Amino acid sequence: MPLIQEIRRHHNLAELAREHGFRLTTQRRLIFSILESASTHMNAKEILAQARRVDPGIDQVTIYRNLAVLKKLGVVDELDLLHLRGDQHYYEARQDRPHSHVACLQCGKVMEFSSPAMDKISTEIRDELGFSISFMRVEIGGACAECRRKTPLTSPQTKANQNVSRSKKLN
Amino acid sequence: MPLIQEIRRHHNLAELAREHGFRLTTQRRLIFSILESASTHMNAKEILAQARRVDPGIDQVTIYRNLAVLKKLGVVDELDLLHLRGDQHYYEARQDRPHSHVACLQCGKVMEFSSPAMDKISTEIRDELGFSISFMRVEIGGACAECRRKTPLTSPQTKANQNVSRSKKLN
DNA sequence: TTATTGTTGCAAAAGTTTTGCATTAAGAAA
DNA sequence: TTTCTTAATGCAAAACTTTTGCAACAATAA
Ligand SMILES: [Mn+2]
Ligand SMILES: [Mn+2]
Ligand SMILES: [Zn+2]
Ligand SMILES: [Zn+2]
Predict the structure, then answer these.
(1) How close is the nearest chain A Cα to the Cα of B49, in Å?
(2) Roughly what angle, to the nearest 10 degrees, separates helices B26-37 and B44-52?
(3) Which nucleotide's C1' atom has the smallest distance to the CA of B43?
């Protein structure tokens, strides 16, 4: 882990916070560092669990309040990820370049995908609508290559189309 | 309202439902027709309210269950719209062409924007990842042209940066 | 018309996020 | 360093949205 980048990152957060009148509490720093080093997209519950391994007394409300602050500072992005599991949202430290999230509705895997077409869209919206973009989400749902090979899930509902031939499988 | 299209649409829903073993109840038809003729994106609560003007006895759980069915049938899309108001999601009848949703976080206005770049992205993901796309969301948050002219909202939080000069306005 | 079973409505439960408030602690000023 | 201001935290309760269980109902096909 390159030290210089570490330092620069923290410097940015500290400076950003100060500029906006936010204090740099240990909890805030902890939550941000968790997201910075996360290898997956985490929801509030997961962030809380991991934060408690360092600060057992931290409360969930502190997670929520700080996620709101970190979003405002633009250092954390909130994702819907199609609510893959439950009703929560997911969070990630803001990346250098925007990327789309491709979620497999069968196995739950989430892939990231970068494309110049994303910049194209944001440029168009800025130029044609005069809109000032704060953030952008591209979220895609479907079936990954791996799952497509395996049996397509029964996706629908009750008994009707489980073994009735005219009932097509959905997805 | 062109009758031919009306008929074709309903025919599609009836056929789709039958193919998948779903029944075409009056409630289901009502909910779909509400979304079909809606001029705005509606959340479950709003759909319920409007449905009750026709069927006062309809329950919210019927709204939720049917939105799930209509989504599975691919005739309704669920949107996050950055949770502009509260924690709900929004729904719209599936359109002919995919479009992105541009939401102003200040006035709450939601604009729709179509671009070939969206198709570009989905094509890339299909070809490069071997991913089968069921649906795609592009959601953008920021400030609309109109709001940019007016005073930028204080967006942040407490008293600190309300009148302290070094505190920049966020968005 | 009858049989089957998907669907509805009601009520309760579950899951997630927010609010109120006293206490603590970050950061600026003295 | 010490003092002072007030943003931030933790705890508990509340608010909100969505889901589940189940008996009664109604859409389809036989
Ligand atoms: Mn990501
Ligand atoms: Mn969402
Ligand atoms: Zn998969
Ligand atoms: Zn606006």
Answers:
(1) 23
(2) 110
(3) D17
How close is the Cα of A125 to the center of ligand 4, in Å? 14
Each as own residue / partner, the long-range contacts of residues A8-13 (CB below 8 Å, 24 or more positions apart, any chain) are: A9/A36, A12/A75, A13/A73, A13/A75
pLDDT in tens, A75-112: 999 999 998 888 899 999 999 999 999 999 989 999 99
Number of domains in chain B: 2
Give chain B positions within 8 Å (CB) of A72: 155-157, 170
Q: Which residues of A touch B69 (CB under 8 A)?
A: 157
Residue B94: phi and psi, rounded to 5, are -60, 135
**Is residue A165 one of the residues assigned to a domain?**
no
Q: Is B104 on the interface with A (CB under 8 A)?
A: yes
B92 and B49 co-located in one domain: yes
Domain that holds residue B134: 97-154
What pTM was estimated for this model as a whole?
A: 0.85
Per-residue CB contacts under 7 A with strand C, chain A residues 11-70: 17-18, 23-26, 43-45, 60-61, 64-65, 68
Each residue of B136-166: pLDDT tens digit? 999 999 999 999 998 544 433 333 333 333 3
**CA–CA dist A89, A101 (Å, integer):** 13
Residue B171 lies in a domain: no
